[in-house]
Design goal:
Keywords: Membrane, Transmembrane, Transmembrane helix
Helix content: over 70%
Distance between the termini: 17 Å
Organism: Geomonas terrae
Radius of gyration: 17 Å
Shape: globular
Number of domains: 1
Protein name: DUF1440 domain-containing protein
Number of strands: 0
Structural class: mainly alpha
């Protein structure tokens, strides 16, 4: 059990801190999604809906849950699956981000921008299309893609802030 200052806690429990940072960052990215969505034109939104049902982070939870359940989900189950996916996404990417920023400190510079941009391209350009959650970036209109990149930047900046605040006691 950690006693003393926050620095000793980060040294003893870096994965827990990283996972907590990921959860907090997920809440910030969710808020940024709502704000940035207002900047996407209706025309771009319509074009986006022609190529995908919704952004990958919105469809992934319900699709995975439906596969696990072996059936279609009702509206309440879909909402629950979105929430569970959001938590797992935050925990998982929080752990990945925390480990990478410790191993490669350059990823923490400029609010984490060196992590955020590859993070966006990994998620929206490789992982989501590879899992069939979204088409490739070339098919998605530019404004929704920029909005998603903004969400990844908001996620990373928030995770970085958590790490820096918790690490102040070192």
């Amino acid at each position: 059990m950690a006693t003393g200052n926050a620095g000793s806690m980060t040294q003893r429990h870096p994965v827990l801190i990283a996972m907590a940072a990921g959860l907090i960052a997920g809440a910030a990215a969710s808020a940024s999604d709502g704000l940035l969505d207002r900047l996407v034109s209706e025309q771009q939104k319509r074009r986006g809906r022609r190529v995908r049902e919704a952004p990958a982070h919105q469809v992934a939870g319900p699709r995975f849950a439906a596969k696990i359940a072996g059936r279609r989900l009702n509206r309440k189950e879909k909402e629950r699956a979105k929430a569970v996916f959001g938590v797992l996404y935050g925990l998982g990417w929080g752990a990945i981000h925390g480990g990478l920023r410790r191993k490669f400190p350059v990823l923490s510079r400029w609010g984490g921008l060196p992590f955020a941009i590859p993070f966006f391209f990994a998620c929206d350009g490789v992982i989501a299309p590879g899992l069939g959650m979204s088409p490739g970036l070339k098919r998605i209109p530019w404004q929704p893609s920029v909005k998603e990149m903004g969400n990844h930047i908001a996620w990373t900046v928030t995770a970085e802030l958590v790490h820096r605040v918790v690490g102040k006691g070192r």
